[in-house]
Specification:
The complex is a heterodimer of chains A (about 350) and B (about 180).
Chain A (H helix, E strand, L loop, with lengths): L2 H9 L13 H12 L26 E2 L7 E2 L18 E2 L7 H13 L10 E11 L12 E2 L2 E7 L5 E7 L3 E2 L2 H9 L9 E5 L16 H9 L8 H14 L4 H12 L5 E7 L5 E9 L6 E7 L6 E8 L12 E15 L3
Antiparallel strand pairs in A: 1-2, 3-10, 4-6, 4-14, 5-8, 6-7, 7-9, 10-11, 11-12, 12-13, 13-14
Helix pairs in contact in A: 3-7, 5-7
Chain B lengths: L2 H22 L7 H14 L9 H14 L22 E3 L6 E3 H10 L2 H11 L5 H8 L3 H18 L21
Antiparallel strand pairs in B: 1-2
Classes of the chains: A alpha+beta (about 350), B mainly alpha (about 180).
Chain lengths: ~350, ~180
């Protein structure tokens, strides 16, 4: 039997869509209208795929909302700023102690380990909330944006990896009154609708499912699972930063995270800082060009509890081809809530 | 409506469902609409590149790039694992053979393959593409694709415990019907 025929016979019945098809005629028409309203000549040449996500979630035609929240407005008409808006820099003071970062982080790991377990009433699930912003999603096809629009993420996760993630744009932050007036003049609007994703059991956030390990070595392997090449040290820091926004970390897990960070080559104490939510923290960084441009990757830790407060990525040396002025924060995560709460209906 | 919009609208109306299926076969449902919209946005921007005669392999190629293009740490598409629910015991009777395989075993064997093998087999078995079309989706020559298809099929058969003679046809009855 020909290979193709055999393969079709063996696997044809497994087609996940054999009983389904696209639904939602409303979405079908809406997407078509929005695509057609995009200026296809606006500097998109040479890029295989746009890097934006949720391209067509905008509430109003002519406004393209992008994930992680900087919004391009009236693309073919609005004068574009020369540089994209980026968040304010945090102000770092001298480190809390003269100890090397690895020693300090181990001390903070001990602090974390000594914390009480968070209360978990019956029937509750992991409930997290954070505010996030990513530059990459605001720049595409040569277009830039004049406001920083952070995105609020709220998630619930049950022990069997079912859950829900809700994302919503927060009010825009302007660099200046000029930017704000221009935004209003061109009718800029932020997509105010929430985006909700529900996950069935076993589907919540690939890469972060199941029990978070309480041993730093096991945590390393857990984060690395599924990757083939050994990650650069900074990659562990990034993974941990993502983890803290997706999973609730109990004291032992927090201690494992801090111990893992303590062992990363190149980790340095970046100083004390007030984070974007106004909380006092200690910052630890790795500077690396593992992703192309030299950047400083920072985690902010609450010294009283060992909780992760936030994460920052900053370009300090060169912007490469990105149209931002140096120094520039190009990503931040601000962890606001991690508790056990009831799953919403 | 200008010519470009008309051309695009026809492309969209004609192939939306197929692109939707391509994506829905690979990632969990909640993300599918966004990915499909992004694929067609690329098509709109690169309308001049869309091959007139057979746009579908080109669209699938774009979808493949969109799915692969995970910005680090921003999003991870939830990959769809092939599952068999109600018909786990349903048997596939292979032509010319005494071999009988259950849907469940086929699913398990399929899931054991590498991502590359799975994509090759999906293009043939679910998108029902010819080798020429599938090669175009993957950016390979027809000869390369044909060779990879043979290997993927061989590995699938191995996972299914199907013996094969030199010609690659099933030689002996192997798997019996397993229920559950």
């Amino acid at each position: 039997m020909k290979a193709i025929d055999e393969v079709r016979q063996l696997l044809g019945g497994l087609d996940p869509t054999r009983n389904t098809g696209p639904a939602e005629d409303a979405r079908h028409e809406r997407d078509l209208a929005r695509i057609l309203s995009v200026d296809r000549t606006a500097g998109a040449a040479g890029r295989a795929t746009p890097r934006r996500r949720f391209v067509l979630a905008a509430a109003a035609a002519g406004v393209v909302a992008v994930a992680g929240g900087a919004v391009a407005i009236g693309i073919d008409r609005q004068p574009q700023p020369a540089y994209a808006a980026t968040p304010a820099l945090l102000d770092y003071g001298p480190p809390a102690s003269a100890e090397p970062a690895s020693v300090r982080l181990r001390r903070l790991a001990a602090v974390a380990a000594a914390q009480p377990m968070p209360p978990r009433p019956a029937g509750t699930v992991e409930h997290l909330e954070s505010a996030n912003w990513f530059l990459n999603s605001s720049i595409s096809g040569g277009r830039t944006a004049s406001a920083v629009v952070p995105q609020q993420w709220e998630s619930w996760r049950s022990d069997d990896d079912a859950g829900r993630m809700v994302r919503k744009d927060l009010p825009p932050i302007f660099r200046s009154d000029v930017d704000r007036r221009q935004w209003q003049k061109w009718g800029g609007r932020v997509d105010s609708s929430r985006e909700v994703r529900d996950y069935a059991a076993g589907e919540f956030y690939r890469g972060f499912r199941g029990e978070v390990p309480t041993d730093a070595g096991v945590l390393r392997d857990w984060l690395r699972a599924g990757t083939s090449a050994p990650p650069a040290p900074v990659q562990y820091l990034e993974d941990v930063a993502q983890l803290a926004g997706i999973r609730l970390l109990n004291p032992a897990q927090r201690a494992a995270v801090l111990t893992l960070l303590a062992d990363l080559p190149g980790i340095t104490a970046a100083g004390t800082v007030t984070d974007r939510a106004g909380r006092a923290g200690e910052a630890f960084s790795i500077t690396s060009d593992a992703h192309g441009l030299p950047a400083q990757y920072t985690v902010i830790v609450d010294p009283r509890t060992g909780t992760l407060l936030g994460y920052e990525e900053m370009l300090t040396t060169t912007a490469g081809k990105l149209n931002v002025t140096i120094p520039a924060v190009i990503t931040y995560r601000s962890y606001l809530k991690a508790e056990y709460a009831s799953m919403p209906r | 409506m200008d010519a470009a919009k008309e051309q695009f609208t026809e492309l969209y109306e004609r192939h939306h469902a197929e692109v939707w299926r391509y994506v829905a076969r690979r990632i969990v449902a909640s993300d599918v609409g966004d990915v499909v919209a992004e694929v067609f946005l690329v098509a709109w921007r690169r309308l001049a590149d869309v091959p007139a005669g057979s746009p579908l392999p080109w669209l699938y190629g774009v979808a493949r790039l969109v799915l692969a293009n995970e910005a680090r740490g921003r999003r991870r598409w939830q990959e769809l694992t092939v599952r068999v629910a109600a018909e786990a015991g349903h048997v596939i009777v292979m032509d010319h053979a005494d071999a009988v395989v259950s849907q469940r075993d086929a699913a398990v064997a399929f899931n054991r393959l590498s991502p590359g093998d799975r994509e090759i087999l999906r293009l043939v078995a679910w998108e029902w593409l010819t080798p020429v079309e599938a090669a175009a989706v993957l950016g390979q020559s027809r000869a390369t694709f044909a060779m990879r298809l043979m290997r993927a099929r061989r590995r699938l058969r191995r996972h299914l415990g199907m013996a094969s003679d030199a010609a690659g046809r099933p030689a002996t009855p192997s798997m019996s019907n397993r229920n559950g």
